[in-house]
Design goal:
The protein is built from 6 helices and 5 strands. The protein is an alpha+beta fold and 167 residues long. It has one domain: Haem-degrading domain (Beta-Lactamase, 2-Layer Sandwich), CATH 3.30.450.150. A hairpin with a 2-residue loop joins strand 2 and strand 3.
Length: 167
């Protein structure tokens, strides 16, 4: 499925990253620290990237059990918030991206929904949720985007984290 690119034209469908690529992203995208101010900076960066792409997404950033940032852009709906919660729970449980979890199940010839034994109304192993890992501390939170096809949700989060770390 493609989504409109800036200017309203459909973009090419995003290519799904391999399991090795997903693992590499998580190894590379480790933060030196993660504060309330960092959440604001990362969240506003995600909103800017989404607006540049005309993406109708909701964005959520949490550290531990505390929501530090949330934004819903035009075109997003309350369903996006429900997807955010379901994808975030997958990251919290598995300590890796929601796309990696879903990809691992597909690599085994099954699906998360069929084989995880977890309630699909509570957990969704669809792309768009990524662990916020801090050097020396491990996973301390999550960053989640919902509103695009799952590969594009994931790619938007990765692009923002790459820019955030490079800044």
């Amino acid at each position: 499925m493609s989504t409109p690119a800036a200017g309203g034209r459909p973009s090419a469908p995003a290519k799904a990253p391999s399991l090795d690529e997903l693992r590499d992203q998580e190894r590379r995208l480790v933060l030196p620290h993660f504060t309330h101010d960092d959440a604001w900076t990362l969240g506003t960066l995600l909103v800017e990237l989404a607006r540049e792409r005309g993406a109708p997404v909701a964005v959520d950033i949490r550290r531990g059990g505390q929501q530090l940032f949330h934004a819903a852009l035009p075109g997003s709906t309350p369903d996006n918030d429900a997807w955010i919660d379901r994808k975030r729970r997958v990251v919290e449980r598995y300590q890796c991206s929601s796309l990696q979890v879903g990809t691992r199940f597909r690599a085994k010839g099954t699906t998360f929904e069929d084989s995880s034994r977890l309630d699909p109304d509570t957990y969704a192993a669809h792309g768009g949720a990524f662990p916020l890992a801090v050097e020396g501390a491990g996973v301390v939170g999550t960053v989640v985007v919902s509103g695009l096809p799952q590969i594009e949700d994931h790619a938007l989060v990765v692009a923002a984290l790459e820019r955030f770390i490079a800044a």
